[in-house]
Every structure is written in C-alpha cells, then in structure tokens.
Amino acid sequence: MRKGLLPAVVVTALLALYTWAVIGRAWALIDTGKAVGVGIGIAVLVLPLLVLFVLIREWHLAVQVQSMADELAAAEELPVDSLPRSPGGRIDRIAADEAFGEMRARVEAEPTSWKAWYDLAFAYDASHDRSRARSSLRKAASLRKASARETLRGH
Predict the structure, then answer these.
(1) Is the predicted pLDDT of residue 1 greater than 60, yes or no?
(2) Using CA atoms in the order 98, 100, 106, 109, what is the torsion angle rounded to 10 degrees?
(3) Which of 116-149 are b and which e, b meaning 16 or more Cβ less than 10 Å from the residue's Cβ?
C-alpha cells in the first residue's frame, strides 16, 4: 500500500461526512419554505459543490503524480532527495535554492518536458513553495498527457 494513501482516504472520508452534514442542514433550511431559509439553504449548498470540485481535482492530480512517479521509477529517473539537512531534518535553504536554480534552468531549456516540470515541482517543494510545486505538477501532468496524445497520433 502506498505510504500516503490511508491518511488521504481517512481525510476524504471525514470531509465526505462533513459535506453530508452541511447538505443536510442546507436541505433543512430549504425545507422551511420561508424565503430567507430557502435563500440561505441554497447559498449553503454552494460549499459542498466547491468541496466536491476541489476533492475530485486533488485526487485526480494525486493519481497523475503517482503515475508519473511510477514511470520515472521504472526508467530509474526518479529524482533523488539528496539535499543536506539540519539535525532536526530541515532542508538546508542554500542547497535547496541552488537545486531550484538548476531545475528552473532545465525547464527553461526544455519547456515541453514533463519530466523537467516534475523535477521543478519537487525543487519548489524543497524551497517550501507548495503552491508553485502543485502548479508545476499540474503542468507536468498536462505536458505528459499532451505527449501521450501526440505519440498516439503519430502511430
């Protein structure tokens, strides 16, 4: 079993329970039949829809990232975290910034390489820029999908 799968499933299940409770409260407000209750109930229903959208989007990204990692591991190209760490386990900031510079230069040299974007995502993560790391993973997944489509068209 994958290392992070169980916690992700547990959090998703808890979020599903919370969303179910919110939907129940929203429906109770709508069921009052009063204009204010109906209005608030409809407004509250927006939250579960947003949660559902984000949840599906994140699980889809997780599946894509795992697939990319599996492909890179099979080709023995999976990036290795060799950054120096403090005794407490924190990544050395200067080393992370140097690695980031190298990965960014690689993406600039190969802007359509999903592997370069994948590596850049982990360089962002090491630099504690989670937002850009996720964005880079999305870009890598998109480029990989486009590359697969192009390969299929070519044959």
Answers:
(1) no
(2) -100
(3) bbbbbbbbbbbbebeeebbebbbbbbebbeeeee
Distance CA 135, CA 141 (A): 10
What is the CATH T-level fold of the domain 93-154, as seen in this structure?
Answer: 1.25.40
User: How far is the C-alpha of 81 from the C-alpha of 71, rounded, in Å?
Assistant: 18
Q: How distant is the alpha carbon of residue 114 from its chain centre?
A: 15
Instruction: State how far the alpha carbon of 116 is from the alpha carbons of 28, 79, 100, 140, in Å.
Output: 51, 10, 12, 8
Could you report the per-residue pLDDT of 88-137, keeping only the tens digit for each? 888 888 888 888 888 999 999 999 999 999 999 988 888 888 899 999 99
Instruction: Say how far apart CA 99 and CA 119 lie, in whole Å.
Output: 10
**CA separation for the pair 16, 84 (Å, rounded):** 39
Please report which confidence band the pLDDT of residue 155 belongs to, taking 50, 70 and 90 as the band edges. low
For residue 22 the two structure tokens come to 């919110």
